[in-house]
Amino acid sequence: MIARIATLICLIVGLVSCEQLPPDKFVLEGQVENLKDSTVIELAYFTMQNNKWQRSIDSAIVMDGKFRFEGEIKGITAAQLSFPDISAARFYLEPTRMKLWIDRNAPYAYKLSGTDVEDENIVFRKDMERYEKLNFEKLTNLLNEIKQFHLLKEDAPNRDSLKNGINYQIAELDNLRGAMDSVRLNFSSQHPSFQITPDILYQLLVQETMDVDSIRSLYNILAKDIKSSLMGKFLEEKIKEEESIKNSSVGGMAPDFTRKCFSEKSIKLSDFKNKKYVLLEFWASWCLPCLKEVPNLKRLYSTYQGKGLEIIGVSLDEDKSSWLQAIEKHKLNGWPQVLNNEHKDKSVLENDDLSKIYNFETIPFYVLIDKNGTVIERWEHIGEEQQLRLKVLLN
After folding, report:
1. pLDDT tens, 71-120?
2. How far is CA 99 from CA 70, 92, 118, 196, in A?
3. Which residue(s) pair with 29 in the sheet?
4. Of 147, 77, 263, residue with least CA distance to 69
5. Strand pairing of 86-93 and 77-83?
């Protein structure tokens, strides 16, 4: 009898809503106002797959003002809904069924039901509401003016004034974002037990509003269960990544790494600590300036290898065969050679990418590390000045 009543209720309220979801699955059904049918919208969110942090991006077509997303997540995670011309809203997904109502002309005022974490987000959104509204209005005006600017001819009389207006609005938006970040900071400090706080700290970190040491201090006061949540773990990994980047600067402790050499022998940077100076040489088989440095490097290695210098070549090649062919062709097997990133399934975090951790833009690039493991030099080339520095250190 009870089963029959439950079945009847399901039929009345809608059979789909009574279906049981798998533990890691979410369904987001939405209603959007003031957006044309057949418009493609996107949902982006972070999750973990195969022990790698991934940014999933899914798309949906709006029909009769409705849309639907579904996917797999390991816990509560931040999501960004975007319309074709602008980011619409940031909210939090749970592995459950959710319903979203949103207006294209006022996306900051969305309504999300079906999640417990939205109760926390509502508290945060009250603090941010007037800033979000103003930010959306200013950003919409800016995008419209940029479109107008690109439609003007080079000699249009109002081109310069429009350009000045665009620059002024960009400056205003920067100031507004500063005020919004102050709200984020205050909220994070006051709500260390909220599930959404790690994501708010993450936003402050990636926007470079605060230095990584300050974010680490705020992370440390988070409740234990918040640190162990999906977003808490993601924040911790992002903090570690930023700390590694900071340590790659002169005066920092060189970020450690383990890689397989071209000979398949494993090599670890910290194994040279208290033994040798290490010169990291970032290069690639396709980089002609890098290959031009090879004779110079061979002379340096021949001179200083016996005096406490080790060179480790780090190739940015993505094709392993090209890397191995270059080592053989240019006889670069005199010192250890490793790949910058050994894994093809890249994560949104750059912990495995040495070029990101050591924070440079062009190659060749060199990082000199002393016997204590401290970064003491960062060079874009090795000329007379750099050779003299090595001579002073190693003679």
Report:
1. 999 899 999 999 998 878 999 999 999 999 999 999 999 999 999 999 99
2. 12, 12, 12, 19
3. 68, 99
4. 77
5. antiparallel
SS3 27: strand
Contact 77, 63 (CB under 8 A): no
Pairing of strands 309-315, 337-339: parallel
Identify whether the C-beta of residue 133 lies closer than 8 Å to the C-beta of residue 108.
Answer: yes
User: Phi first, then psi: what are they for 58, rounded to 5°?
Assistant: -120, 155
Residue reference for tokens 């201090």: 217
Q: pLDDT tens across 51-77, in order?
A: 778 889 999 999 999 999 999 998 999
For 230, half-sphere exposure in the C-beta direction (CA atoms, 13 angstrom radius) is: 20
Tokens standing for 371? Answer: 């016997």
Are 218 and 246 a contacting pair, CB within 8 Å?
no
Q: What are phi and psi of 52, to 5 degrees?
A: -120, 135
Per-residue pLDDT tens over the stretch 202-217? 999 998 888 999 999 9
Name the phi and psi angles at 196, rounded to 5. Answer: -85, -10
- b/e sequence 272-288, b meaning 16+ C-beta within 10 Å: bbeebbbbbbbbbbebe
DSSP assignment string, 30-90 = EEEES--TT-EEEEEEEEEETTEEEEEEEEEE-BTTEEEEEEE-SS-EEEEEEETTEEEEE
The sign of the dihedral angle between the CA atoms of 118, 122, 127, 128 is positive
Question: Is residue 23 reached through a cis peptide bond, with omega within 30 degrees of 0 on the bond before it?
Answer: no
Task: Report the alpha-carbon distance of residue 370 to residue 375 in Å, rounded.
Answer: 7
Phi-psi label, residue 339: left if phi above 0, alpha if psi -120 to 50, beta otherwise: beta
Question: Which amino acid type is present at position 58?
Answer: D
The two three-digit tokens of residue 273, written as one number:
């600590």
Look at residue 350 in the predicted model and tell me its pLDDT: 58
- 172 neighbors 139 (Cβ within 8 angstroms): no
For the purposes of burial, counting CB atoms within 10 Å of the CB of 13, is it exposed (0-12), middle (13-18) or buried (19 or more)? Answer: exposed
Q: Which of 83, 56, 53 is nearest to 70 (CA)?
A: 56
Tokens of 316: 């940015």
Q: What's the helix, strand, coil split of the chain in %, to 5? A: 45, 25, 30
Q: CB–CB of 269/256 below 8 Å? A: yes
Measured distance CA(377)–CA(366) in Å, rounded: 8
